[in-house]
């Protein structure tokens, strides 16, 4: 007699994974969560808002996963999955409320799944949101053994009259960059083409470990700044780098003028450039050391930077806004 396990799906391993995952998820629960992991759906109660708008985002980690497979390190990838979603919804001033993940694999290893979700839980804690559900799909013959994919979905909230959408941006406003933690989770198809030995030493560390540095989560610092200053626009520097993402904060016809000499470029980006990647391609692919950008009035620049630095962020002026045109000018 044949059963599901003979087809490659181990139900008992799935039960073990759920049990391990529950422990990680419980650490993230915040006021509003009204049921536990294991139900058919996650539930979250909204309180204390006058005219709330729900803001959602979804994303994955991309081919950075291959480095995790080869390094056999799985406890940071989940942070990336959370960061890519919560940093996006943060751009409109939204506070993340809850997160759901989706993990697909060829053969489920409960311990690996637990490591992945440990990272997801840590990312949720950094973002101040709850992990209230998810799905783990075992698909033998579809994914290679030892490989998996992870994606996530976040929902946040903001008062309707406090949505940040670029409507107040004007000529002469200043762009402030907040430092990234590294490459984050974009451009890894090029990274993997150029860098193949992940055990190579790079500044006293394995380069594979540097490449797996999780994406920085900006939620707590930026929400604190929003409460103190008028933030007119924000951009999460993800795929498409400066060129694609900064203009997304504009509502009218503006050009972001970036002083490239102001950018504190991380060593890993300089190393990628040493393979012959042009500066234009770098700014159109990577964050170059700046993972999040704020647009503020010139009178608020010093106060915003000082406040961010008090919270442990590295922040500095990277450019300004000019009326007319559309896009980014890096000079």
From TrEMBL:
<keyword id="KW-0963">Cytoplasm</keyword>
<dbReference type="GO" id="GO:0046084">
    <property type="term" value="P:adenine biosynthetic process"/>
</dbReference>
<dbReference type="InterPro" id="IPR004733">
    <property type="entry name" value="PurM_cligase"/>
</dbReference>
<protein>
    <recommendedName>
        <fullName>Phosphoribosylformylglycinamidine cyclo-ligase</fullName>
        <ecNumber>6.3.3.1</ecNumber>
    </recommendedName>
</protein>
<keyword id="KW-0436">Ligase</keyword>
<feature type="domain" description="PurM-like C-terminal">
    <location>
        <begin position="170"/>
        <end position="327"/>
    </location>
</feature>
<keyword id="KW-0658">Purine biosynthesis</keyword>
<dbReference type="InterPro" id="IPR036921">
    <property type="entry name" value="PurM-like_N_sf"/>
</dbReference>
<dbReference type="GO" id="GO:0004641">
    <property type="term" value="F:phosphoribosylformylglycinamidine cyclo-ligase activity"/>
</dbReference>
<dbReference type="GO" id="GO:0004637">
    <property type="term" value="F:phosphoribosylamine-glycine ligase activity"/>
</dbReference>
<keyword id="KW-0067">ATP-binding</keyword>
<dbReference type="GO" id="GO:0006189">
    <property type="term" value="P:'de novo' IMP biosynthetic process"/>
</dbReference>
<dbReference type="Pfam" id="PF00586">
    <property type="entry name" value="AIRS"/>
</dbReference>
<dbReference type="InterPro" id="IPR016188">
    <property type="entry name" value="PurM-like_N"/>
</dbReference>
<dbReference type="GO" id="GO:0005524">
    <property type="term" value="F:ATP binding"/>
</dbReference>
<feature type="domain" description="PurM-like N-terminal">
    <location>
        <begin position="53"/>
        <end position="158"/>
    </location>
</feature>
<keyword id="KW-0547">Nucleotide-binding</keyword>
<dbReference type="InterPro" id="IPR010918">
    <property type="entry name" value="PurM-like_C_dom"/>
</dbReference>
<dbReference type="Pfam" id="PF02769">
    <property type="entry name" value="AIRS_C"/>
</dbReference>
<comment type="similarity">
    <text>Belongs to the AIR synthase family.</text>
</comment>
<dbReference type="InterPro" id="IPR036676">
    <property type="entry name" value="PurM-like_C_sf"/>
</dbReference>
<comment type="pathway">
    <text>Purine metabolism; IMP biosynthesis via de novo pathway; 5-amino-1-(5-phospho-D-ribosyl)imidazole from N(2)-formyl-N(1)-(5-phospho-D-ribosyl)glycinamide: step 2/2.</text>
</comment>
<dbReference type="GO" id="GO:0005829">
    <property type="term" value="C:cytosol"/>
</dbReference>
């Amino acid at each position: 007699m044949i059963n599901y396990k003979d087809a490659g799906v181990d139900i008992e391993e799935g039960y073990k994974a759920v049990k391990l995952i529950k422990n990680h998820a419980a650490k993230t629960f915040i006021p509003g969560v009204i049921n536990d992991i294991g139900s058919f759906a996650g539930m979250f109660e909204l309180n204390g808002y006058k005219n709330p708008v729900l803001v959602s985002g979804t994303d994955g980690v991309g081919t950075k996963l291959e480095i995790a497979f080869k390094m056999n390190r799985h406890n940071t990838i989940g942070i990336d999955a959370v960061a890519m979603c919560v940093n996006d919804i943060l751009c409109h001033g939204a506070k993340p409320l809850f997160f759901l993940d989706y993990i697909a694999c060829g053969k489920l290893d409960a311990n690996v799944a637990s490591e992945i979700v440990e990272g997801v839980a840590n990312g949720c804690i950094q973002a101040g949101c709850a992990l209230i559900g998810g799905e783990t799909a075992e698909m033998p013959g579809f994914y290679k053994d030892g490989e998996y994919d992870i994606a996530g979905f976040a929902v946040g909230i903001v008062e309707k009259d406090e949505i940040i959408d670029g409507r107040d941006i004007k000529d002469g406003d200043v762009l402030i960059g907040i430092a990234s933690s590294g490459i984050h989770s974009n451009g890894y198809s090029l990274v993997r083409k150029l860098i193949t030995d992940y055990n190579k030493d790079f500044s006293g560390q394995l380069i594979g470990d540097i490449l797996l540095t999780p994406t920085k989560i900006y939620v707590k610092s930026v929400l604190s700044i929003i409460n103190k200053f008028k933030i007119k626009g924000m951009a999460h520097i993800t795929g498409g780098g400066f060129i694609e993402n900064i203009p997304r904060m504009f509502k009218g016809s503006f050009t972001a003028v970036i002083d490239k000499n102001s950018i504190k470029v991380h060593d890993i980006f300089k190393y990628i450039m040493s393979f012959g990647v042009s500066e234009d391609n770098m700014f159109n692919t990577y964050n170059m050391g700046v993972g999040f950008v704020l647009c503020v009035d010139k009178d608020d620049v010093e106060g915003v930077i000082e406040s961010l630095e008090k919270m442990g962020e590295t922040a500095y002026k990277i450019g300004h806004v000019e009326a007319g045109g559309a896009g980014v000018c890096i000079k």
